[in-house]
Every structure is written in C-alpha cells, then in structure tokens.
C-alpha cells in the first residue's frame, strides 16, 4: 500500500459533528467536522494512552475530545486542552496526533495520507459532477479483496464481454486501442464500436445499431477509474459516466465508492434502473475479485505474464505504482506486520512530521527500500 496518495475516506454526508472511525492502509483514523463545517482527519490513537478519539465527542471549539481523559485535539492534531491538568500547566509538545490534509470534492471526503502533500498527485477534475443537466447517484460497498484485484475489475475492455456480457461488435475482441498518459499518474484510452440497440430503459436512447464511443481513464488519486460512454451513440452527447474509487482498508479489504452520472433521463424515475444496471456489473466484478488469489498481491516482477490488449492499462498501472515505490512511498507490509505482532502501533506520517520530526509518541510505518528492486 502507498502513502502520499489522496484517498476517499467517506461520503461527505457521513461526516458530522461527531467523530467517525475509518480504517485505511491498515491504520486507524478519525473523521469529524468542526463547528464551521470543515472536515478533518486525525490519527485515531490518542497520544496520551492510546484510547480511540472516535469514541470521544466533538466540541463547539472545533475539537474532538478523547474518550478517556478528554484531551481536546483541533483539526491540526494539536492538543489544546487537558481537562485534568493543573491550572496554567503548559501543554507538552508531544501532546499531538498526526493530522492529514482533507478536501471535499464530488460529495466525498478526500484525505491525503502521507507527509508530502506538495508531491502527491492532485485530486482529478470531473467537471460533469455538479454541472447543470447531470444527475448523480452514490454507492459504496466493501470487498473482501486486495485493492489491485478490486481495481482490475474495470481496468480493461476485454473482461466486459466475458464477465458482463457486453459484446464488442457482436464479439469478444475489443477494437485495437492505445493507452496514453494524461500526466505522470493518469492514463486514458478510448475506443469506438458498433453497438446494438440498448436494452431496457436505455433503448429509449439507442434505438438501432450505432457507433458508441467509450473512454476509460485511470487516476492515481483515489485509485479512480472513470468510464465515460456516449451511450446514445457517437455525436448524440448523451453520456453515462461511472467513477469508481478504491480505498485499501488493509491489504485484503477494499472499500469501493461509486458515483454514477448521466445527462439524459435525469428525472428520479430512472434512478432505480440506472443503479441496477451498475449493481449487476458490481456483483459480477466483486465475485471474481474476492475469489482471486493470492489474497495479497504486489507489483509483479519484470517479465510477468501480461498480454495485449487486455493488460495494456494494467501494465501502466503497475508502472505508476513502481514510480511511487521508487520514491519510497510504499509501506513495507512485512515489517509493519512484524511490528504489529510485537504489539506496536505505527502511524502514517503526516506533513507536520516534516516540519518537526521530534516529539511524536508513535513511530511511523516502515517503507519498502526503493533500491530493493521490483517485487518483494
Ligand atoms: S488516553 Fe486520550 S486523553 Fe488519555
Ligand atoms: Fe467490470
């Protein structure tokens, strides 16, 4: 798993002025909203005696108070009040927990888990979200699957006819396509295919065989896939967009958050059908991702089995992650597991640790040696 990446931590509507526990990258965090409405994300383990902040409560001063002795932490992770301390006593420098950059976009709370926000890839732009003439649905589920397997459930065109029965020109072979880099950490590809009349409610849009344009993009931020299909046929402007974002809860568990947008049939009556079409695909993808072995997988060794065209996008996905490893941003999971077995708690480093590396109660997670080569 990788740090210095923006991940989705929750839908905005789930974060209120009461603390919410979230697990990501095998660590524990608390999300809360201050009195002004700003969302915050802190390490959930209190620096005093390790009680969970998420079992405490929020106060009007914009803090979250620990459940055991009531130390209050602001959105920067600083303890600003110790109810049991002697009057006038100074607050120790180590009375702080890691705080992570938060942004709210697309109805989601995004958190940058790492210590170098300037180096992290930005949250992608999705101008269609919130734009006039678009209707969006939200959906979330947690899969018993490694996040790579979960992500690969939509990162190629070849599985569509095999898993979802969506044929290309009546067959299983997708047209030739290239993958381009939009920037260092984002990929795009596009294909045109002749497609039959649509089924169900969508048949109102596509009454006959026509050419349909489909674009697939991958963004490192949020581990996001964007599927953009001109569902009514090329040139109609009637588009369906699926955004799926994956957050590794740990190496074996992944929360999938989906945003489904359409700029046609935008009244509520079409929502159920729209969601059900997507739920069918999600069910099919999930069954495979949860059955894939090994349960934990990692960047493959050079020369690993990959084919064209199904692995075009997957190959570049691994290349992007290999760049993160070369930057020293991969958590060394084996060393982290050993520390856990010894009963230690390690945190994802936050930006404040770069400014002042001393006076922290918990050590940071170990990182994979960038010089150790590909694969572990
Ligand atoms: S354990 Fe949190 S205030 Fe004491
Ligand atoms: Fe799929």
Give a verbal description of the structure:
The chain is of the alpha+beta class. The protein folds into 2 domains: 1-114 and 331-376, Rieske [2Fe-2S] iron-sulphur domain (Rieske Iron-sulfur Protein), CATH 2.102.10; 135-320, Naphthalene 1,2-dioxygenase Alpha Subunit, Chain A, domain 1 (Alpha-Beta Complex). The protein is built from 6 helices and 18 strands. The protein has a 7-stranded antiparallel β-sheet. The longest helix has 21 residues, at 271-291. The chain binds FE2/S2 (inorganic) cluster and fe (ii) ion. FE2/S2 (inorganic) cluster is lined by residues 46, 48-49, 51, 66, 68-69, 71.
The assigned structural class equals alpha+beta
| SSE ordering | EEEEEEEEEEEEHHEEEEEEHHHH
* Strand order in space, largest sheet: 12-18-17-16-15-14-13
Provide mean pLDDT, rounded: 93
Poorly predicted spans: none
Question: Count of helical segments?
Answer: 6
**CATH 4th-level superfamily of the largest domain:** Naphthalene 1,2-dioxygenase Alpha Subunit, Chain A, domain 1
Radius of gyration: 23 Å
What is the CA-CA span between the terminal residues? 13 Å
Tally of DSSP β-strands:
18
Bound molecules: FE2/S2 (inorganic) cluster, fe (ii) ion
Helix content: 10-25%
Q: Largest sheet, if any? A: 7 strands, antiparallel
Just name the CATH architecture of the largest domain: Alpha-Beta Complex
CATH topology of the largest domain: Naphthalene 1,2-dioxygenase Alpha Subunit, Chain A, domain 1
CA-based shape: globular
Q: In percent, how much strand structure appears in the residues?
A: 25-35%
CATH class descriptor name of the largest domain? Alpha Beta
Domains, number = 2
């Amino acid at each position: 798993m990788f740090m210095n990446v923006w991940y989705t931590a929750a839908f905005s509507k789930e974060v209120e002025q009461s603390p919410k526990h979230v697990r990501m990258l095998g660590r524990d965090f608390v999300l809360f909203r201050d009195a002004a409405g700003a969302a915050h994300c802190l390490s959930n383990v209190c620096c005093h005696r390790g009680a969970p902040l998420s079992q405490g409560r929020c106060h009007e001063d914009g803090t979250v108070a620990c459940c055991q002795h009531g130390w209050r932490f602001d959105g920067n992770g600083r303890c600003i009040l110790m109810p049991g301390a002697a009057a006038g006593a100074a607050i120790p420098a180590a009375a702080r927990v890691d705080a992570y950059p938060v942004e709210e976009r697309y109805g989601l709370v995004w958190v940058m888990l790492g210590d170098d926000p300037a180096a992290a890839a930005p949250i992608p732009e999705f101008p269609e979200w919130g734009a006039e003439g678009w209707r969006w649905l939200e959906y979330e589920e947690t899969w018993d699957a490694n996040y790579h397997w979960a992500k690969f459930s939509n990162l190629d065109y070849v599985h569509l006819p095999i898993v979802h029965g969506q044929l290309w020109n009546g067959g299983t072979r997708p047209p030739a396509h290239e993958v381009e880099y939009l920037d260092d950490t984002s990929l795009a590809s596009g294909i045109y295919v002749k497609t039959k009349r649509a089924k169900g409610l969508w048949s109102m849009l596509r009454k006959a065989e026509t050419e349909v344009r489909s674009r697939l993009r991958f963004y490192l931020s949020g581990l996001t896939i964007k599927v953009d299909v001109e569902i009514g046929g090329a040139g109609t402007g009637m588009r369906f967009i699926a955004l799926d974002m994956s957050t590794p809860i740990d190496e074996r568990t992944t929360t999938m958050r989906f945003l489904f947008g359409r700029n046609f049939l935008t009244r509520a009556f079409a929502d159920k059908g729209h969601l059900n079409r997507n739920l069918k695909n999600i069910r099919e993808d999930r069954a495979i991702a949860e059955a894939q072995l090994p349960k934990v997988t990692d960047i493959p060794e050079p020369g690993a089995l990959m084919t064209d065209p199904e692995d075009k996008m997957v190959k570049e996905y691994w290349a992007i992650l290999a760049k993160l490893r070369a930057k020293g941003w991969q958590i060394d999971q084996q060393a982290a597991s050993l520390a856990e077995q010894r009963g230690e708690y390690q945190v994802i480093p936050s930006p404040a640790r770069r400014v002042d590396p001393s006076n922290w109660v918990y050590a940071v997670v170990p990182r994979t040696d960038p010089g150790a080569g590909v694969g572990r």
